[in-house]
Design brief:
The chain is about 30% helix and about 25% strand. The chain has about 375 residues and is α/β, with parallel strands linked by helices. Helix 4 crosses helix 5 and helix 4 runs parallel beside helix 6.
């Protein structure tokens, strides 16, 4: 496919005022000004008509397909609120790619999402990075697992308080995480000793600890749900103790601990912002958080946390960050290349770099202008808009 006559936001360099994007065999093949456009192109051609051409948008944190749209309990597969520690749960076994919100995502230009379990449990389970086009999830996966979800703050407290079980305090939530990380470290060490010495006995198989092995081996990052500044500090504290790779999810009060986050070099997936302050830990919510973090040197992504904010409003969430002071180019990066980098999928998506997946959005105007329309969406080189 050849897309011509548009302002090309490559997200790996300056925008090209009147450019083209060529896709071959599902991958970005060539990008440049119209003067360099292949004259002998024989495949499908799409005219952007002076609009804007971008990489498909990336929602770095949501629960798409985990909470069925307009279905109630029958479609509610996002929280296994029966056990505070469920690292062995896999989003790939819970996502319903037939949920109509996948279509909403595609039509809005959101072509990649990181989705998975909610935050009822301190250790919630495994996220997946996936495309929003397709019917069989296994063909839509970019990376599984993409992250291990942990949760601090109010959600685990509320969940288990209602069940008259623990944890019901922030201390106990952190203790559940530490206890199971310590067990995973011990399990890892026993496995390594047994592999090195045939006289050493292997530990009995444990599905939960097996799931945590990539975490304590630094092969799989943890994405930690934390809104309040003290919860963000706890996230940093625990990850320091166990030497984990990690990302702060939500980071609602991140602007209060910018120096801590910047010193750790940790990415923050901010949002949702298009919501009310529905619970106490959202009391510090504001539109300026992304720009304050970015100015402090923290890499930020912007998410919808679908269904908290419907996934199709991801560009609007980025526009709200611009209203809060974030430069437009940075806001676009926060839903494309920065989101892909924080989500660990920038080798595949997030920019119009030759060799990456042919995921492209064509819009009638600037993508952060709410009046702009999505003209076409291409996933893996195939047009998916209806």
């Amino acid at each position: 496919m050849l897309i011509i006559h548009g302002t090309v936001h490559t997200m790996d360099g300056p925008a090209i005022d009147n450019g083209f994007v060529a896709i071959r065999e599902g991958k970005i093949w060539k990008v440049g000004p119209m003067e360099e456009c292949p004259a002998d192109w024989k495949g499908e051609t799409l005219d952007a008509r002076g609009g804007h051409i971008l990489p498909g948008f990336v929602d770095a944190h949501c629960h798409l397909g985990m909470f069925g749209d307009a279905m109630g309990f029958e479609g509610d597969d996002g929280n296994e609120a029966t056990d505070p520690c469920t690292p062995h749960l896999r989003a790939i076994d819970g996502v319903n790619p037939m949920d109509r919100c996948f279509r909403d995502a595609r039509l809005a230009g959101v072509t990649t999402v990181l989705t998975g379990p909610g935050s009822a449990n301190p250790i919630s389970g495994q996220f997946v990075a996936m495309k929003t086009a397709g019917r069989w999830l296994d063909d839509m996966v970019i990376k599984a697992p993409a992250a291990m979800k942990l949760a601090l703050g109010e959600n685990p407290k509320l969940t288990y308080h209602e069940r008259h079980e623990g944890p019901i305090t922030r201390m106990a939530t952190a203790a559940v995480i530490r206890e199971n990380l310590a067990k995973a470290v011990e399990y890892r060490d026993k496995l390594e000793r047994a592999a090195a010495d045939p006289d050493e006995e292997k530990p009995e198989f444990d599905a939960k600890l097996e799931a945590l092995l990539p975490v304590v081996r630094r092969e799989l990052p943890v994405h930690i749900h934390a809104h309040r500044a003290d919860d963000i500090a706890t996230a940093v504290r625990i990850c320091r103790e166990y030497g984990l790779q990690f990302v702060v999810v939500h980071g609602t009060e991140g602007y209060r601990v910018t120096e801590l986050l910047a010193a750790e070099g940790v990415g923050v997936i901010t949002g949702p912002i298009l919501t009310d302050r529905s619970k106490p830990e959202l009391g510090g919510q504001n539109q300026e958080n992304p720009v304050i973090l970015a100015k402090a040197g923290v890499k930020v992504a912007i998410c919808t946390d679908h269904p908290e904010t419907p996934v199709q409003y991801l560009p609007l969430c980025a526009a709200m960050a611009v209203k809060g002071g974030l430069p437009a180019d940075a806001a676009l990066a926060a839903i494309t290349i920065w989101a892909a980098e924080i989500g660990g999928v920038a080798h595949r998506v997030g920019s119009l770099t030759p060799g990456k997946d042919g995921d492209v959005v064509v819009m009638s105007g600037h993508p952060l202008n709410w009046l702009s329309r999505v003209s076409a969406v291409v996933v893996d080189g195939r047009r998916v808009t209806e």
